[in-house]
Each structure stands twice: as C-alpha cells, then as structure tokens.
Write a structure and sequence with these properties.
383 residues; alpha/beta; seven-stranded parallel β-sheet; six-stranded parallel β-sheet
C-alpha cells in the first residue's frame, strides 16, 4: 500500500549547537505545515550546553522543545563525537526513523550521520556542499565526510553543486533549495530587539553606540583567531584602532572571554570605545546586525545574514566556505592583517561598502521546498 505521511516513521532532526537552531526552526515548522504533515522527532545532542541560552534561543526562534536531549556537553572533538554516537544510537533503536536530517557542520552533524548510515537509515544533509578548502578547520572535515555518506543533499547556493560533483557525488542526490538561515531571518526580523534595549539590558547607556559614523558589531570565536595569544593580541590592537573611527559593540563569546582573561588583554579594551556585551539571543543579534554600519566577524552564519540584510561584512579569516557572500553579497575577506582590516573599514566609512544582492532562492521559503521534496522522496522510497 502507498505510504501516507501520517504513517511514516519520524524524520529524526538533529541539533547540537547554536548555528543549528536557526537552520532547524523553519524546517520543523515546514514539516508541521506540510500536507500531510511530516512526522519528526527533534533531538538535541547538548553539544552546546548553556541551558539558559539554549532556552532563550529556542524561545526566540519558536523552536519546539527537543523531544530528546542527549546532554553530551563539552569535550575534545574525538570524545564529543564518540559520546554523541553512543547516546544517539539507542534513540534510533527506540523510535525508528524514515531518515535522519542533520544541518551544518558541527560534531553533532557528522556523529549522527555516521550512526544513521551504519544502520541503513537515510541521511539528509541540509547546507551541503559548502567548502572552505581548508582541511585545518574541523568543520571542513565534518562537511566533507557528511556529504560523502548523505543520501540526500540540500544546497544553499549553486556553487555547492560544483563542489559535490568534484567529489564524486551523483547529481540525483543533490537538490538546490536555498538557505534556511535566511528563512529564520526573514521570519523574525520584525521582532528584532532594538539596540538601545540590548545595551540597557547589559548595563550600558542606551546611546553608548551613538556616533555620526554609526557603530561596528564584532564577533570572534574561532580557535584560529582566539586561542593563540599573538593572534588574539593583534586582533585586539586592530579593534582598538577601529574604535577610533566608530564605536564597537563586541559580543564576547565565552571561549574568547576566557582567552582574553588568560592572556591579560581585557585592559586594552577597557579604555576604548568598545562596548562589551555578553553572548546575545537571536533577536538581539538581529537587532544589532541590522542596525550596524559594518560587521566584523569570523562566523559563517553572520556572513550570510549580513548579505541578506545588505550590511557590509568584514570576515576576519583567510577563507570562507560561503563564497557567494563575497561574489554576490556584502562580504569582504580581510584575514587578520591589521592594515587590510583598517583599510577595508575606511573604505566602508567613505564609500558605504559593497551593496551586494540577495542570492537566488534566499527568499524565506527554503524550508518549504525541503519539506515538499523530502516528503515526495520518502514516499517514493517506501513504495
């Protein structure tokens, strides 16, 4: 008999870290809205384990509470990946699955994909085919390996298909659907928290970022930028120089905060026009990004969000797995070179920066396309 949506085993949807939440929220919403609905089970591995921030992000995004939380917590890459695999396998045994859907490139992504494929359960990878071509990045290893074992690969940009074809992945496994991160952005932009409110909540004057040049938003979290004392010290010097041109809102990641303390670098930030903020919720970050004159970051997701918002972005890395944000969007790769960063910042302040445009299918409907395609794929597979 034909398989009906309501009688399918659930699609097990995996999240593990903050960037996953923005990708998964529109997907599970689209699964519920699809006719017939796609049954799903939301599994949180607990790779990021700040319970208060998790609860806030889930609330901001209207992401349902996870059905299962594996509560893995922090560890080395090897230990964390192994622990996720150990705890995820019994979930598949207990609930069954028509497919396991993973997003992005964190350890939870590759760990759950490995468990699923070894149990002959189809793996669906959302945000497939992105490549930095830097095998020194743990995320790059996760991306490449997940794509190799995935049965269905949903891509955010046309160039991802070229990367996958180069790696020998057959075209029928690849589907260009657009960017679910932008689904979340478009759905929530009207609810973004005003900058003044975010500043006040953090104990700063509501006008602390007011200036004729606007303000810059800064985020740093990648180990290559924050774990080495000389590198982080150089970036702090660059931020101090940049703050002479416009005030800076620095949303300080816990890893970055720890290293700033360990290396004795906080004193340099204190006397400058640098407003330090704790990690922010999604709606607060949307408010900061959309109001900023420029964003300086090493985050992949923020490169995409600033392109969608039309806000100039300076990426403090030597490469990016999201080249479309450079080729079509508002992003400029500046690396960690002090002079290159300040020169690019001055160009933005003088000329406004890259205008860019929103890439194809970054229209807020990527999750709907995923739900429709995945339902048809699963029905065809079952029949």
């Amino acid at each position: 008999m034909p398989v009906e949506g309501a009688r399918m085993k659930p699609v097990i949807c995996v999240v593990g870290a903050r960037p996953n939440y923005m990708k998964m929220a529109p997907i599970v919403k689209a699964f519920a809205a699809h006719q017939p609905p796609l049954p799903y089970l939301l599994v949180h591995t607990g790779q990021h384990y700040d319970h208060a921030m998790n609860a806030k992000l889930f609330g901001d995004l209207k992401l349902p509470d996870p059905d299962v939380n594996l509560e893995v917590g922090s560890a080395s890459h090897a230990v964390q990946t192994a622990e996720i695999m150990k705890r995820f396998e019994p979930i598949l045994d207990e609930h069954g699955a028509s497919a396991v859907l993973v997003v992005g490139d964190v350890n939870s992504t590759i760990a759950c994909a490995l468990v699923a494929t070894k149990k002959n359960i189809p793996v669906v990878h959302v945000e497939a085919g992105l490549r930095s071509f830097d095998r020194g990045m743990p995320e790059e290893i996760n991306r490449v390996l997940t794509d190799q074992i995935a049965d269905l690969l949903y891509t955010t940009e046309a160039g991802a298909s070229v990367n996958l074809a180069r790696e020998g992945i057959a075209e029928p496994r690849i589907q260009f659907v657009g960017n679910v991160m932008i689904d979340s952005l478009r759905a929530n932009l009207a609810q973004a928290v005003p900058v003044a409110q975010t500043l006040s909540a953090a104990g700063h004057a509501s006008d602390a970022l007011h200036s004729p040049n606007g303000f810059a938003l800064v985020t740093l979290h990648r180990p290559s930028n924050v774990d080495d004392q000389e590198t982080l010290s150089g970036l702090v010097n660059t931020l101090c120089e940049a703050s002479k041109r416009l005030p800076i809102a620095f949303a300080v990641h816990p890893r970055t905060r720890s290293n700033l303390e360990r290396f004795g670098l906080f004193a340099r930030l204190a006397g400058e026009r640098i407003v330090q903020l704790p990690p922010q919720g999604y709606l607060e970050m949307l408010g900061l990004m959309s109001a900023a004159r420029v964003v300086m970051t090493d985050s992949g997701g923020i490169q995409e969000e600033t392109t969608a918002l039309g806000v100039p972005c300076l990426t403090l890395r030597e490469n990016t797995e999201r080249p479309i944000t450079v080729d079509e969007g508002t992003n400029t790769l500046v690396g960690r070179d002090h002079d290159a960063i300040i020169r690019a910042l001055d160009q933005i302040l003088i000329g406004g920066g890259k205008a860019g445009r929103s890439p194809a299918l970054w229209d807020g409907r990527a999750a709907e396309r995923i739900a429709a395609h995945l339902h048809a794929w699963l029905v065809a597979r079952a029949n």
